[in-house]
Amino acid sequence: MSDTLFTVDATCGQSGGRTGTLKLPRGEVRTPVFMPVGTLGTVKAITVGELGGLGYGLILGNAYHLSVRPGDGLIGELGGLHRFMGWEGSILTDSGGYQVFSLEARRRIDEDGVTFNDPATGDAVRLTPERVIEIEDRLGSDILMPLDQPVPWGADRQATRDAVDRSDRWAERACAERDRRHLDAPHRLLFGIQQGGFEEDLRRLSSERLSALSFDGYAIGGLSFGEPPAVTAGILPGCAGALPEDRPRYLMGVGTPADIVTAVACGVDMFDCVLPTRLARHGTAYVGHSTVQLRNAKWREEDSPLDPGCGCEACTRYPAAYLAHLVRSKEILGCRLLAIHNLYHYGALMARIRESIAGGTFAAMAAEYARREPDEE
Amino acid sequence: MSDTLFTVDATCGQSGGRTGTLKLPRGEVRTPVFMPVGTLGTVKAITVGELGGLGYGLILGNAYHLSVRPGDGLIGELGGLHRFMGWEGSILTDSGGYQVFSLEARRRIDEDGVTFNDPATGDAVRLTPERVIEIEDRLGSDILMPLDQPVPWGADRQATRDAVDRSDRWAERACAERDRRHLDAPHRLLFGIQQGGFEEDLRRLSSERLSALSFDGYAIGGLSFGEPPAVTAGILPGCAGALPEDRPRYLMGVGTPADIVTAVACGVDMFDCVLPTRLARHGTAYVGHSTVQLRNAKWREEDSPLDPGCGCEACTRYPAAYLAHLVRSKEILGCRLLAIHNLYHYGALMARIRESIAGGTFAAMAAEYARREPDEE
To answer: ipTM score here?
Structure first.
C-alpha cells in the first residue's frame, strides 16, 4: 500500500498509544477503531442503517462461514458482500484461521491447508491460503486476512514453532495470490498475522518474516486463546512492539473495554470482538466501566435509564425497567436495544480514547480503566 | 362517548364497506385500520420508532399477559404502558377473554370471573370484569376491552347460550367499573364484545343487550376459533350487521389480507392479527395477494427485491437472496426485516382499502382478493 494509507496523527507520549487515520476505498477510519463482528453478513440483530447511525464505518465478516453459507460464489455473482448486505462502509474479513482453533475437533490440517467438517451443514470445507484469498476477492473485502494456524494456550514449544513456520509460509502464499489477482491495484489491503503463541522470541521471528513481505498492516493473532489474562497482558507489549510502527496494528478478537484500553497503550490500532452483541443477547449491558445483568432484581422496577449518561436509543427512550422486562420475556427487541446500547458504548469508548490521546490525557484514562469495578452477574 | 368520536366519511355503495375517522386522545386513526399486536409491550422484533415510520398509530397490548409480566401495578407506577414502551400512539388492550379460549386447560371459570394457571410463571391469576378494567386503567389503555367468555367451534347451543349470557352480565359489570373510575372523562373508550358462537340469533341477542349499555364501539369476538373459513364467511355479515352503524366495529384476531377485505365488505372497521409478525419469524412474507416462504430454493439466488413493487426497507435495500440467507441462518435481522415488510404490506393494504372505498372502486378490489393465488409453502 502507499504509505499514506495509514497516518499516525498523534501519540500519547506516556505510553505506546497513538491515534491515526486509515484511508480505505470506502472512506477514512479514525484509529484506534473497534470493528463490530458480522460473521454471516449481519452484525447480529442490527441493521446496516443502525451501524452507520452509531458511527461505525468498518465491520468484520468471516470468509470461512460466508463461503459455506450462502457461498462466496453466490455473493460474488450478486455483486459482492457490500451490496448483498446493503453496507456502504468498509469490511475486513477474517480468514478462517480462528476456526482452525475453535473447530479443532472438526478439522484436519496439512501443509497445503485445512479441511473442516462444517458444523452448520456437515459439508467438507477445504481452505488453502490461495482459496481464502479467492473467497475474500469474491466477497469484495476491503481488508483481507490470510489463512493462518494459531495454537491454543498450553501448546508446547515445538508445536508452536511448527505453527509459526507454517503460518509464515502460508502468509507468503497469500501475498503471491494477492499479487496474481492484482488486488492491491484497487487498494484492497492484505494484513499479515503474527503468531508465535506465548513465546516472545517466536513472536519476534514471525514479525521479522512478515515484515519482509508486502503487507499493508499487521495483526496479532493467537491471543485470548484460553490463557489467563495476566499472560496476555505480559506478552502483548512485546507482540505489538515487534510490529512495524508505520502500519496499522490489529489485535484480533479483543476484547472488553479495559482490554482495549490496555492494548491501545501498547500501540494497537484496531480491534474486533463479539462481546457487545453477544452479551446483549444474554441480557448484559456495559454501564460505566463494567457490565450489568438486566435480569437482576434491581432493574425490575428501575424508572431511570439504564445508563443516565448514555445517548443511545435504549437509554434515551425507555426506563431501564422496560429493558429488564424485554430481557426477562426473551423478546427480540431486548436483544436489539441492548446491542444498540453496547455498540454505542464501544463507539463512545473508542472516541474517548482517540480524543484523550490527541489531548494528552490518555494515561489518566488508562489508569481509570485499571481501577474498574467488578462486573454484575 | 361523544358521537363525533367516530365519523363515517365515505361508504362503498356496493357493499357494507365504509371508511371513517376514529378520534382518540393521542391522535386520529383512519378506518378501516389494522392494529399490530404487541402482547407483552412490544410488537415483536419492532421498535416503536419503526411502527410510527410504517404509519401505525394504534397498536394492541394484552391486559392479561401484562398483568402477569411485568405487572400492571409496576407499569402504572412507571407512568403507564405508553411511557413504559415509549409509544406515543394509541393502545387498545385485549382483556384476557381470548386466553379463556387459548389457555382452556389452564383455567377455571365461575360466575364471578376466571382463574388461570399462567403458563409463563406458573402463578395463579384471577381475572374478574372489575379487575380487567383496573388493569387497563393502570396500563392507561386508550381503548379498553371487557372480560368475556368466548366458546370454541363445536360448543353446543346451551353452552353457547350460557357463555353469551355470562359475557353480557360481565359487560354490564365492566361498564359499571368504568363509570366508577370515571374513565370516560378523559375519553378512554370501552368496547362491548359480541359473542354467540355460530348461532345467528344469539349473536343478535348479544348485540341488542350490548347496545343497551353505554359502549363506545363493538367487537365481534369468538370468530376464527377453529371453525372452517366458510363458516366464518357465512356468519360474519349477520354478526356485523347486528351491530350499531354509528360505532366502530372491530373483528378480533382477524386475519389474512383476504379475510380483512371480506370483512371490510361486511362493514368492519378495525382488525388485529399476529400473522404479519408471527409469519415473519417463520420466514414467510406477503407478496402480491399471497405469501411466499423465503426458505424455498427459488429465493436462494434471487437478485431482485422480495417484492419489486414494495417500498419497505427490506425490499428497497436488499436483494431477496440476502433475506433468504438471513432466514436460513436464523438471524434475528431476518425476523426484523420480514416483520417490517409484512407490516408495511398490511399498512399499504389498509390504505388501499380506504382509498378504494372513498374512490368508489372497493368492489373491484374485493373481487380481486377473491381470486387470490395460493400461498407458497
So the answer is: 0.95
